[in-house]
Amino acid sequence: MLGTALARSTNGLDSSKPISSRWGHYFLRLGLLISLLALLGPTAALAAPSGNVLSNPDFEQDARRTSLSSWVAAGWYPWFHIDRSSPYSREPEFGQITNRQRHNGERAERWFNSYGLHDAGLFQQASVPAGSYLTFSIWAISWSSAKDVWAQSDSHYNKWVGIDPTGGIDPFSPNVVWSDVNREMDQWVQLTVSTTAKASTVTVFVRGKPDFAVKHNDIIVDEASLTYDTAVVTSSAPATTIAAPAPGAPGLEGPSAFFATTGHTVRGQWLQWFDRNGGIDVCGLPRSEVMLDPITGQWVQYFQRLVLEWHPENPAAHRIQRRLLGDWIYPGADPAVDPAPASGHAYIFFRWDSRQPAGLGHGVSDIAPDGTNIGFRTFFDTHGGVNAFGYPKEEPKLRDGRWTQRFQAAVFEYHPENDKDGYFPGTTIPYRHYRVQLELLGDEYIAQHNLGLQ
User: Fold this and answer.
1) How far apart are CA 192 and CA 215, in angstroms?
2) Between the CA of residue 199 and those of 53, 131, 165, what are the distances in Å?
3) CB–CB of 260/235 below 8 Å?
4) How far apart are CA 165 and CA 178, in angstroms?
5) One-character DSSP codes across 49-107
6) What's the DSSP call for residue 416?
7) Within a 10 A sphere around the Cβ of 85, how many other Cβ atoms?
8) In angstroms, rounded to a whole number, what is the distance separating the alpha carbons of residues 273 and 139?
């Protein structure tokens, strides 16, 4: 079975070695700790998801030798693909980082090569209830440069996370559900993907691939997590009726996930968008099936936090778009401000220029005007940035004693009650995972227009 899964050469994994050697070569134990899928807000009526079911998710356990020059943290296995058509395609070196360049704790995992290219990563299998809703994430930082200065890249490195809901170990299988590619360089980003388990064993993957064969092509990963939520497919108090999509609704072909709490299902391309863009954390629970919108006449699906629209005029990969509910509910924007003097990862400014608009003249910061560490910039970066939320329409403001910030498609809220050490009882979810939450704009929009959706 393993030989079948790994037997790839030009178009897959290297099959030139015996199975036992390939296992050691392709699979390293990686420590990926993920930020778990949680109940996005106090009104999301789901039971808490499971704790982290991965082995050694933070890479703190000792590494084992997997080849002449590679070491991998316990619990994880490496994989790589050799492209025989490229003279630069090579096996990367895997190794454990100790007390440097890690996201948290003492250790992290790295793979890299010099003046070469790789398509490589790590994987781990885990046991979950079949039919449960899965979320896998990991923190990663990439460096791609011809210079020897760490974290000052001059080219790009692509990185993804994926889940095979059937438990296979082939990263090139069509069963693998991948996140969108992330090309952020020189800073830690959280990669996340969700899907529904089709078997009692599933496999999580991390993948990295540089653009150019420069001197340094490195990726470091840390703090991985895989959680599942059975409330997505079963509930002690299910909705009295299970809705169906409107006849002729587009984009429904493919997997589906039933959310028993609201009695609605997310299907096909709509589910793919949902899974790749933050799942319940960003979207909330579905409030409708795919339907013809009585407001705009478009095919749409309503969620607690947003509305998704079908745009047949777009290329296939962009036919589902998020409605700019921040503009619908809170029209207009505050006057543009001068960029704050702060710089670095804690602040980013989107300048307004009438000749070539690239923003609304406001920034996103981890620090509120009173000095409170609200974490908005970190949440913005790790959950899709401008593509997910649009541009900020104002600077952070106190509303009813809570720091908030309005964007074209969302409103960020800071929840200080979650800004503390420790974990939610019975889970490995840090409280701080929920210090930033999104306002339930979808529910507000539904109420404003008296749509009667639940």
Assistant:
1) 29
2) 15, 7, 7
3) yes
4) 11
5) PP---SSSTTS-SPEEE-SSS-EEETT-EEEEE--TT-TTB-PPEEEEEESSS-SSSSE
6) G
7) 8
8) 21
Radius of gyration of the chain (CA): 22
Any idea which architecture 2-231 has in CATH?
A: Sandwich (2.60)
Q: Taking residues 64-82, what's their average pLDDT?
A: 92
For residues 177-203, one letter each, b for 16 or more C-beta atoms within 10 angstroms of the residue's C-beta and e for the rest, the string is bbbeebebbeebbbbbbbbbbeeebbb
pLDDT tens per residue across span 316-340:
888 999 999 999 999 999 999 887 6
pLDDT at residue 11 greater than cutoff 50: no
State whether residue 387 is helix, strand or coil.
helix
Q: What is the mean pLDDT of residues 388-414?
A: 95
Q: Which of 82, 68, 64 is nearest to 28 (CA)?
A: 64
Dump strand ranges (E) for 211-357.
216-229, 256-259, 264-267, 291-292, 299-302, 307-310, 320-322, 347-350
Backbone torsions φ then ψ of 152, nearest 5 degrees: -130, 80
Query: 360 with 392: CB under 8 angstroms?
Result: yes
Q: What is the pLDDT of residue 240?
A: 42
Q: Is the pLDDT of residue 107 over 70?
A: yes
3-state secondary structure of 266: strand
- Over range 339-352, report the average pLDDT: 70
Cβ atoms within 10 Å, residue 214: 20
What residue spans define the domains of the chain? 2-231, 235-323, 347-408+410-445
Interstrand relation of 411-414 and 436-438 (parallel, antiparallel or unpaired): antiparallel
Q: What is the mean pLDDT of residues 127-133?
A: 87
376 touches 396 (CB < 8 A) = yes
Closest C-alpha among 392, 438, 393, 430 to residue 414: 438
Q: Could you report the per-residue pLDDT of 195-252, keeping only the tens digit for each?
A: 888 899 999 999 999 999 999 999 999 999 999 887 554 333 344 445 788 899 999 9
pLDDT score for 68: 84
Task: Say how many CA atoms lie within 13 Å of 244 toward its Cβ.
Answer: 3
